[in-house]
Specification:
By secondary structure, the protein is mainly α. It has helices at about 1-35, 35-60, 65-70, 85-95, 95-130, 135-145, 150-165, 170-190, 195-205, 210-220, 225-240, 240-245, 255-265, 270-290, 290-305. The protein starts with a helix and ends with a helix.
């Protein structure tokens, strides 16, 4: 009877096992199809299409104005003699473009560093330090995420005008820092809060103070999240045009506003606009690709947690 009962149980379980194997085989087939060579080839083609505007701008910046007005940039593949660096030489001789590129660096680097440093300190404080009203203050910071930039342009411009900061690089840096901090604090606080409490307690038992604990333990563990934040902030500030149009003057304009001014004043000045636009685009791309490993690590760490 025992053997007969076991046989009946095995027979009853056989259809379920067969169905399970069928489902697993279907999932396996789908996984193999997604990871197959056809999908990889498709992704490569998509990546190449994404690079077409960048390649076209690069080749256009290496052609003379006559060639650009007479034919498309793709003709360089049949006539490589069109390529020249004369446009970049004219760009270096254009004081407005070179000065605006320096202004862009002077705005972007401090705005990124301030957001990362202040955001990391505030994120650590909200995650691991006890002080009155901590949760309410954090909710207030999160609430600032919904405030659009456009709402604050005119009031802050008037305020900066009253205190003498309007039209200065420092004023633009303060604006970008103020609007970048809520997201920075929110991101880093949530990341730091996932650090094991036992690790921090062990460091405190070894005599580490809050500042040393932050510098020696929290910052190394939060490196991927900090790198991701720095990339986001750098790209946002570098490519910004709205804030720069409102808060800068002729001597403090970044590259985005300078290129727009060149288009408005000198519509046929394409030999300066093309290389200037390419340099304005390639620098943030270089920063992203240089730190893409840290960026991916930060995204994956946040996804796992």
């Amino acid at each position: 009877m025992t053997a007969e009962a076991e046989g009946r149980s095995a027979a009853a379980a056989a259809p379920a096992a067969a169905t399970m194997r069928a489902k697993e085989s279907l999932g396996s087939r789908l996984a193999d199809a997604v990871s197959g060579g056809a999908v990889r080839a498709f992704l490569i083609v998509v990546g190449l299409f994404w690079l077409v505007p960048t390649i076209g701008l690069l080749l256009s910046s290496l052609r003379s104005p006559e060639d650009m007005s007479g034919s498309g940039w793709w003709t360089v593949f049949t006539k490589p003699s069109q390529l020249t660096f004369d446009s970049y030489q004219k760009l270096l001789e254009n004081g407005d473009i070179t000065g605006s590129l320096v202004n862009t660096v002077l705005i972007t680097v401090p705005a990124t560093v301030l957001v990362v440093v202040v955001g990391a300190l505030a994120g650590y404080a909200f995650a691991w330090m006890e002080f009155p009203g901590r949760d309410w203050w954090f909710l207030a910071v999160v609430g600032l995420l919904v405030v659009p930039v456009q709402v604050a342009l005119i009031p802050i411009a008037e305020l900066f005008g009253n205190i003498g900061l309007f039209g200065t690089i420092f004023g633009v840096v303060l604006f970008h820092t103020g609007f970048g901090l809520p997201f920075a604090v929110f991101l880093l606080r949530n990341f730091f809060a996932e650090i094991p409490r036992e690790l921090l307690e062990a460091a405190r038992l070894d005599g580490a103070g809050e500042l040393r604990l932050f510098a020696r333990v929290v910052l190394p563990l939060g490196g991927p999240a900090i790198a991701s934040l720095a990339i986001f902030q750098f790209l946002w500030v570098w490519n910004d045009m709205l804030v720069a149009l409102v808060f800068t003057k002729s001597g403090t304009q970044p590259i985005t506003v300078a290129l727009q001014t060149q288009v408005r004043q000198f519509g046929n000045n394409i030999d300066v606009l093309a290389p200037g636009a390419f340099i304005s685009m390639v620098i943030p791309l270089a920063v992203f690709f240089a730190f893409q490993r840290q960026f991916v690590s930060g995204v994956m760490a946040g996804a796992v947690k």
